Automatic annotation (TrEMBL), chain A:
Residues 1-16 form the signal peptide. Component of the endosomal sorting complex required for transport II (ESCRT-II). GO terms for biological process: protein transport to vacuole involved in ubiquitin-dependent protein catabolic process via the multivesicular body sorting pathway. This is Vacuolar protein-sorting-associated protein 36. It comes from Stephania yunnanensis. It is found in: Cytoplasm; Endosome. One of its GO terms (cellular component) is late endosome membrane.
TrEMBL record, chain B:
GO terms for cellular component: ESCRT II complex. The keyword Protein transport applies. It holds the Pfam family ESCRT-II. GO terms for biological process: macroautophagy; protein transport to vacuole involved in ubiquitin-dependent protein catabolic process via the multivesicular body sorting pathway. Signal peptide: none annotated. InterPro entries: ESCRT-II_cplx_Vps25-sub, ESCRT-II_cplx_Vps25-sub_N, WH-like_DNA-bd_sf, WH_DNA-bd_sf. The lineage of its organism: Eukaryota, Viridiplantae, Streptophyta, Embryophyta, Tracheophyta. It comes from Stephania yunnanensis. This is ESCRT-II complex subunit VPS25. Keywords: Protein transport, Transport.
């Protein structure tokens, strides 16, 4: 009950990934976490959820709780999150022993079969709002990292620590947030048990050495980080320009010509395709990389699919997806694996491999029958009856890529709807007349049907 | 309607896919059937007994739509006829094909009825007379392929209904029919 008060409702995408508001990025993705709360006054332990995914962003710890505990079925629509700014502390130094504590727990994990835990101690007011003035109670939030493989506690903690130290919420802070943090810091405190002697002392020294190495490394990569953050800015800029373009035509609707509108539309689309707010990376998702990538991809392909008539070549998606991801490029194998994982999720898209080996992504709802009907209508036009259709003709009429159109035509051929004509002029398809002709009377033409249509069309030409 | 000499071509002769070997099984089966019928039909009316795969054959090209059969397609269609017993490869290299719009047995029966109709029982005819004599004019026998004729006669001999005897040269083999 108490937790509910400050764990706000959080929206996810239909694929069960957290939806990010501007400027937020996933730092770390973990699975199988348990969230416990301890209220000092009551010492009551109440596991919030037995299973779930946890996402750490600079500002929030997002708790993606899954109601039935299975990762593959994304049933939850609402998730809870802990606002990190509320559990932050003013001086980063005081957090150092915290990381130390973690390493102890991690050690313990191996010995005593207990799970690594991250403890965050915060103070809360009477009604359970953390960090607000008058925080009378101290609440310990324990994050229990479950699962041996998925949880890399050190790296998770590193991320948490980084996010904390970065104090992203303050950088971003727009009055309200930072003010709350300021007020909160006066009354809230983070107190973690800190072993100072013995093995723990040694470990602590080790930790310090490690941290200094880490710092050197970070300095080295600073340029790269700067580049990445610039890339993020570019995304924001693109988004802004898009909005401006959107509002543009309304002001001068009569003045602009159709052509300009077209190019503006194109520009908008192009801008739109630039940004994925929080690309899934190996670093942030770890062992869940492909699974998360798969979900993100399913979200992403909706728009391109719509534009390309329900089917798009895998290679095109690869280009679009990577462009949208900016600097976090993925390999073709990763893309393929992510697509292959769709079979396990309930997603509206699917990967399809044609007999020719061409792979495409298509809407599950798109049926071949509908495409066949359109192809049939196309080849039954008088002109097409006479000279057939080429893949590019079909591509233009169906509004899809020529390579896709060819696949559709070949499929229609294999169903006996079409048959082919190869000549020096090229490769064309005709409506299949063979089945219309009577073998016992090859000269006979019925008065009705496709064959008689063809005969009258063909005779008209000669 | 298009014609080859006095032979009336079916409409689908102008259908371009008819000249492309179809890869889909059902479609190809139908295509092969239509070609078989057309070839037999044409050969019967035009009295063509041998088709050379590498020679020009009027049926295998349609200049109107600028399509012609590939070598592979020709072989496929003729092989289908061979399988049905309506044609035979003359050589192992499949370069020439004997078209049997009547089977050898049917030819033999035809010859017998011809002999009966003309009162040649117990008489003697030369092979050349059967192929180009006055008596055979107007019948299917007129101008028929010598190889086929000889095979039909041999079949009759085997059944004891005719006797073939050799003359001085290959040209004047004689046949004696027995009633």
């Amino acid at each position: 009950m108490l937790l509910r008060l400050w764990l706000l409702e959080f929206l996810t995408t239909s694929m069960g990934r957290s939806r990010f508001i501007t400027n937020k990025k996933e730092s770390k993705y973990l699975s199988k976490l348990e969230l416990e709360q301890k209220v000092k006054t009551q010492m009551k332990r109440s596991p919030l959820s037995r299973d779930g995914n946890k996402t750490l962003t600079p500002r929030v710890i997002t708790w993606l709780g899954l109601s039935n505990g299975a990762l593959t079925t994304v049933a939850c629509k609402s998730c809870d999150f802990v606002v990190l700014s509320y559990i932050g502390h003013k001086t980063p130094l005081s957090l150092k022993p915290f990381s130390f504590t973690l390493s102890i727990y991690a050690t313990l994990d191996r010995k005593c079969n207990s799970r690594p835990r991250v403890r965050l101690q915060v103070s809360a007011s009477q009604d359970g709002v953390i960090g607000e003035r008058g925080g009378a109670r101290s609440v310990v939030i324990t994050l229990v990292l479950r699962g041996s493989k998925s949880g890399d506690p050190d790296s998770f903690f590193g991320r948490l620590w980084e996010a904390w130290r970065g104090r992203a919420w303050e950088v971003e802070g727009e009055g309200e947030g930072s003010a709350a943090a300021e007020r909160g810091s006066s009354s809230s405190s983070v107190r973690i048990a800190m072993p100072v002697v013995g093995i723990s002392g040694l470990l602590r020294r080790e930790q310090e050495i490690w941290e200094s190495t880490d710092k050197t490394l970070q300095d080295a990569f600073q340029d790269l980080n700067a580049l990445m953050s610039k890339a993020k800015e570019m995304v924001i800029l693109a988004e802004k320009m898009r909005l401006k373009l959107l509002s543009g035509p309304a002001n001068q609707a009569n003045a602009v010509k159709d052509e300009e509108i077209g190019s503006k539309q194109e520009m908008q689309d192009w801008m739109l395709s630039v940004g994925i707010a929080s690309p899934v990376t190996k670093e942030s998702a770890g062992a869940l990389y492909h699974q998360q990538l798969s979900r993100q991809l399913a979200d992403f392909v909706k728009l391109p699919l719509e534009k390309s008539g329900g089917m798009i070549a895998l290679i095109d998606i690869y280009c679009l997806f990577n462009r949208a991801r900016g600097t976090e490029l993925i390999s073709p194998e990763d893309l393929l694996q992510a697509c292959a994982l769709w079979e396990k999720f309930d997603v509206p898209v699917m990967l399809r491999k044609f007999d020719s080996g061409v792979m495409v992504i298509q809407n599950k709802s798109q049926s071949d029958e509908e495409v066949f009907e359109r192809i049939k209508a196309l080849v039954l036009k008088p002109d097409a009856l006479k000279i057939g259709i080429s893949p590019s003709d079909a591509a233009m009429t169906l509004g899809i890529a020529p390579a896709m159109a060819k696949e559709h035509l070949l499929t229609a051929e294999s169903k006996g709807i079409l048959c082919r004509d190869t000549s020096p002029e090229g490769f064309r398809f005709y409506i299949n007349l063979f089945k219309e002709i009577d073998v016992n009377n090859i000269h006979m033409v019925k008065d009705y049907g496709v064959y008689s249509c063809w005969v009258s069309a063909a005779c008209a030409s000669t | 309607m298009q014609k080859l000499g006095d032979f009336k071509l079916p409409h689908f002769f102008n259908y371009p896919p008819y000249f492309t070997l179809q890869p889909i099984r059902d479609t190809r089966e139908k295509q092969v059937q239509l070609w078989k019928e057309l070839i037999i039909d044409y050969c019967r009316t035009q009295k063509v007994f041998v088709i050379g795969l590498e020679e020009e054959f009027p049926l295998f090209a349609n200049p109107v739509i600028e399509r012609s059969l590939s070598h592979e397609a020709r072989e496929v269609f003729l092989s289908a006829l061979v399988q049905e017993g309506r044609a035979e490869w003359v050589d192992k290299g499949h370069k020439k094909c004997l078209i049997l719009w009547l089977r050898i047995q049917d030819w033999a029966d035809y010859i017998l009825s011809f002999v009966k109709d003309n009162g040649f029982e117990d008489g003697v005819l030369t092979v050349e007379e059967i192929r180009s004599g006055i008596e055979s004019r107007g019948t299917e026998l007129h101008g028929m392929d010598r190889t086929i004729l000889m095979r039909a006669l041999k079949l009759l001999e085997h059944k004891g209904k005719a006797t073939i005897f050799k003359g001085t040269s290959a040209d004047d083999e004689g046949v004696k029919f027995s009633a």
